Amino acid sequence: MGATRAWCTLIGALLLQLCTVGCVSSFGIFQDFYSTKWLIHSSASDISWIGSMQLFLDLGLGIIGGKLYDAGYCRSTLLVGSLLFSFCSFMLSLAKENQYYQVFLSQGLGMGLGIALIYIPTCTLVAQHFKSRKAFAMGLLVSSSPLGGLMLTIMQNRLIHSNVGFQWGVRASAFLATGCLAVGNLLITIPPKSPPQPGHQADKGARLRDWPFSLTLIGGFVAQLGTFFPVFYVQLFARDHGISSDLAFYSLAILNVAGAVGRIIPNYLADILGAINMLIVCFLCSGLVGFAMLACDHVVGLVLFCIFYGFFFNGVISLYLPAAITLAPREGDLGTTLGIAIVPVGVASLIGNPVIGAILGPKLIWWKGVTFASVSLIASAFFQAAAQIIHVRRSRKVPAPSTIS
């Protein structure tokens, strides 16, 4: 019975993230559409603030979702987040052309707040249901984001660029999201609250004073400054380099297909080789592959880039929380710990893409944006390697501190 509940919860959480977090992975189509048709009076940097606000609220406010989970309000938090996301999705369909504030309030602020109340609680649910193969289970869960991005990318590209138009295309997505959210909330089971750990309340700041955990947070912040650059800009990049509109529309879909695989295989290997080791590899490979975007001015190069970058960058995303769990110094409030770990990533999400948009400038000088994003990822590998070295050395000197199970 426990296994059945665990797998049903995983499926339910996957559905919740599929339509919410998945919309962040599909923002590249809106970046392209808003820049060329719907919000033509706004700069690329201004438009990227919409997607960046979604990311910031999703991740930066994760600590609120985590605290609500630990306080025993998981189900009500998920219900409120679901209702808010669904409502704001329909409100986006009412936004008028060249009315930037309407799009920002509904898509950036409203939908972002809904995602914030769903992401960390669903991750925590799955982490608590699966005591073994935790990284693999969480990899399956977060694979919902690129899968949702794939589904929404194809759906929206075909609808908003056709006679259906922007407003009914968005409404179609809103109806789909509402159905997924309803079924997902019905499938999840909330596990009993864990008893408080001795001395737990007396040392709430222990995580941030722990060097391996803090270095992981710094690495996550630096990486996120550049991680989503191709996701937001690859479709616009392809069109700007003369690649056919049909293939440009599918570039983000290809990236998301590879991303779904990249969120499962590295996490499967993480249960064998260690989440931290696999995260370092994905950091390095993402940064190195990122430079290849400069050579994607033809069809083959674009497809290969989307496949390899989609795989490794999604590996980074799916391994970050398992690595943070591994390095967390105390047991107990798993939701709060995950929320703390995701805050610096959220802050970087808010500023990263607008900064890159400003670096690109109105003339879209692509090599500057590519270099900034790729160097950010490579630098994060060194922060994570330092965290691993300290963690291993400390483990050899004293008995390993208990980690969150």
Automatic annotation (TrEMBL):
Which is an annotated GO molecular function term of this record?
A: transmembrane transporter activity
**Key word Iron present:** no
The protein's superkingdom reads Eukaryota
List the membrane topology term(s).
Answer: Multi-pass membrane protein
InterPro entries cross-referenced by the UniProt entry: MFS, MFS_dom, MFS_trans_sf, Proton-linked_MCT
Q: Which residues form the Major facilitator superfamily (MFS) profile domain?
A: 212-405
A Gene Ontology cellular-component term: membrane
Q: Which SUPFAM superfamilies match?
A: MFS general substrate transporter (SSF103473)
> Any stretches that span the bilayer, and where are they?
47-65, 77-95, 101-123, 135-156, 168-190, 211-235, 247-265, 272-293, 299-322, 334-359, 365-387
Signal sequence, start to end: 1-26
- Annotated keywords: Membrane, Signal, Transmembrane, Transmembrane helix
Subcellular location per UniProt equals: Membrane
Family, as annotated:
Belongs to the major facilitator superfamily. Monocarboxylate porter (TC 2.A.1.13) family.
Which PANTHER family does its entry note? MFS-TYPE TRANSPORTER DBAD-RELATED, MONOCARBOXYLATE TRANSPORTER
User: What name appears for this protein in its UniProt entry?
Assistant: Major facilitator superfamily (MFS) profile domain-containing protein
